[in-house]
Design a protein that fits this description.
about 30% helix, 3-stranded parallel beta sheet
Length: about 110
Amino acid sequence: MRNIPTICLPHGFNRFLNYDINEHVKEIKQKTGRWPDFSSRNMFEVYVLPTKRQRQWSIDWGQDSISTFAWGSARFFPDWSRINLGLLENFESKCDGSAKLKVVMILIA
C-alpha cells in the first residue's frame, strides 16, 4: 500500500429489501448457508452508501461497521451539495486560464 486515503462511493446498489437480489446470490446462500463476502471492500478507509438500510446490508455481508457510512445520495442529498461546494473554498487552479481544467473520476466496480 502507498498510504493513499481511499473513499469509495459505490453506484448501482441494491434498492430492494430482501438480500437474495438475483439468482447468483440466491445460489451462494443455498450452497454455503452464507451471503456473499464483502470484506474485501474493507480496503477503503471510508465506504459511503446512500441509505442506512444499504449500510446495514453491507455490514451483514462482511464490511467493517467502523468505516461504512450512510451519507445520503451523492446526486440528490442536499448535504452532499454543501460538502462539494465546501471542497471548492480552498481550491486554486494551476491553469493559466487558457487551458481547460481536467477532472479525473475513477469508478471501481
